[in-house]
Design brief:
By secondary structure, the chain is mainly α. It is built from 10 helices and no strands. The radius of gyration is 70 Å and the shape is elongated.
């Protein structure tokens, strides 16, 4: 029983045979004591067979339990070994699969390597052929260089001869350049003189044309002195002349057109522009303001905006600086009413 308990590692509850055996041993000991005391040997022998029988039965039970426990441990050990072996087999199978995958990968790499080697072999062959061709070209180039070297010697001799001739040519060219320079100066002077004559002729022709237009309009005015448009047109033509007295006459024509036709918006506009150019700033503001008003009444909104803006700008210019230079006004007029 103690051996069984040590194998199991714990203390199971007492079997009834253990209890009976203990009681039989106690009874035997007690009977021996009683026999010694009473001097009757038969009393000591009575419990002894019973104790022996119980001890034998209990030993057989313990042996059976021990064998059963050993069978259980062996079975557990076998199951554990089977599980361990199964785990190792699974690991071995996994390792085998991994190795097979690696082998397949290596085989694929070997195939690619073989293809690469074949490509490199082909390229090496082509490279060898190219090297042979370059060697042949080098031989030919060497022969050509030898020929060129001989030609260079001949060319050097010819070059020395040509240098001497070129020196003579340079001297001749220097003399020619000197003569050419004098001739160019004469030609340029003549060209400038021709341009001056052409410019003067062109201005004269334009002046004659303007005077003809003015004369024609003046004849129309003489025949019909109360037509505002005639004065307006003559003012436009007269305005093209550059003299200040002509500008003043054009200003008078615009004023006469306004006198004959107080709603002549073009005359107001041109008079305002001309007054601005001549320095009559406040008069220019009034004329342009009237022109903007007439444009608005006629429904010409775009022209109204332009005239109003120009009138306002000149007014602002007067307000900011009473001594604004004439050039500022001319710039403003040219860019806002271009």
């Amino acid at each position: 029983m103690n051996t069984s308990n040590r194998i199991k590692g714990d203390t199971p509850p007492s079997h009834w045979l253990d209890i009976a055996e203990t009681l039989a041993v106690v009874s035997t000991i007690g009977g021996a004591i009683a026999a010694t005391v009473s001097q009757q040997i038969a009393m000591a022998a009575i419990p002894l067979p019973l104790a022996a029988t119980l001890s034998f039965a209990n030993r057989r039970r313990q042996m059976g339990a021990l064998i059963e426990h050993q069978h259980l441990e062996v079975s557990q050990s076998i199951n554990h070994s089977n599980d361990t072996l199964q785990t190792k087999l699974s690991e071995t199978q996994q390792t085998s699969d991994n190795l097979q995958s690696q082998v397949d990968h290596l085989l694929e790499q070997d195939t690619q390597t073989l293809k690469t080697l074949e490509t490199l072999t082909s390229q090496t062959k082509k490279l060898g052929e190219e090297i042979d061709r370059l060697n042949q070209f080098q031989v030919q180039s060497q022969s050509t260089l030898t020929s060129l070297s001989e030609q260079q010697k001949s060319t050097a001799a010819l070059s020395n001869e040509l240098s001497s001739q070129i020196s003579d040519f340079d001297n001749a060219i220097s003399l020619l350049k000197s003569s050419t320079s004098d001739l160019s100066n004469q030609v340029e002077t003549q060209h400038n003189h021709s341009l001056s004559l052409a410019y003067q002729t062109e201005n004269v022709e334009e002046l004659v044309e303007i005077l003809r237009e003015i004369d024609a309009i003046t004849q129309t005015i003489s025949a019909q002195p109360n037509v505002a448009e005639s004065f307006y047109q003559r003012g436009l033509v007269r305005k093209r002349l550059q003299r200040e007295e002509d500008q003043q006459i054009a200003l008078d024509d615009f004023s006469k057109a306004i006198q004959l036709e107080p709603t002549h918006v073009g005359a107001y506009l041109e008079r305002g522009l001309l007054e601005s150019e001549l320095g009559y700033k406040q008069r220019a503001v009034d004329s342009l303001h009237t022109a903007a008003k007439l444009y608005f009444e006629n429904g010409q909104l775009e022209q109204y905006e332009r005239a109003r803006e120009l009138s306002q700008n000149i007014h602002d210019l007067i307000t900011q600086s009473s001594s604004a230079p004439e050039e500022t006004e001319l710039y403003l007029v040219e860019h806002l009413f271009s």
